[in-house]
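Hi there, hope your week has been kind to you so far. Thanks so much in advance, here it is.
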Amino acid sequence: MEPVRTSTPKLGVNKIIGRKSIHDPPCPSPINTMEKPFDLKNKENVESEIDENESDDEQQKEIEDGEEENLCDEEESVKSPSRMSVEKKLDEKEINYKHFFKNVNISVIVGVLILIIILVLYPINQETKRDDGKMEITNLKRFYPHQNPNLWYYITSNIKDVLRYNKPSVILFLYLKNQEKTTNELILTISRIAQKNLNENALEPLIINGLELNTNSYLKDYGYLIEDYKPILEERNVLAVKNLELVSSNVSQAFHYLCDEFNPLVRKSFIVFTVKVEKFIGKEFDQAGIVLRNVWRDLEDDKLEALITRVTNLVLRINPE
């Protein structure tokens, strides 16, 4: 009779393990959990590999850190010159602006000083010229002691009027026939003093004899005289006509325009006339008018009177010496 399966097994027979529950954790296999025999050589290899890996990692990290530093340095090196360039340009601009404004300030100051000097010295220079002329006119008293003291005052005043008002100044001198030499010397001296004050660069004042003006062309048309003498008067500023009574009536009409103070042909001009008389009679202005009306009597009255008014604006007498 065979034994029942549920009976106790015999010794030496492996115990049958019941079905493993799905809730139980898996049992490790003895084969899988069995440790491999320890190999020292392998351990050294493993450690060396680990050390190499770590060293490689460190080297890689150092390389990366170095690259980052180099990259930063490169960025810094790229940015730094541009920044320095910008800063340099800004500094240069600031310096240029400072120099510019400094130069402008210096130029303005210098210009103002020059202008002040000109404004101050120019009137002084003009006054000096006038004073020199006055001094020279005053010194004539020693050489011509018999002249009326007012003579020198009127001459000086009329020269100043040309400078002050920029208009012609006309003086007519009456003299006696026996004082020809004295009169000519005095007229030359006065003309030179006037020219020194009006135009010191001119060579000599223009001094002519009235008789020389009676040329054929001037007798036909006094306009030619104006055309010829106007530029000379502009250049020399002083004109002296000796013996105006010898100028013909037709030619004399040129002085109507040359001596016009209100519409002058040459503004900066000093014109002197002399008229010879037998003797002094009455007032100088009246005597000069009588003489000139007599020699120019063929002119129409309106032209004659206008002409005499211009040439006798100031009449002075030269006394015998």
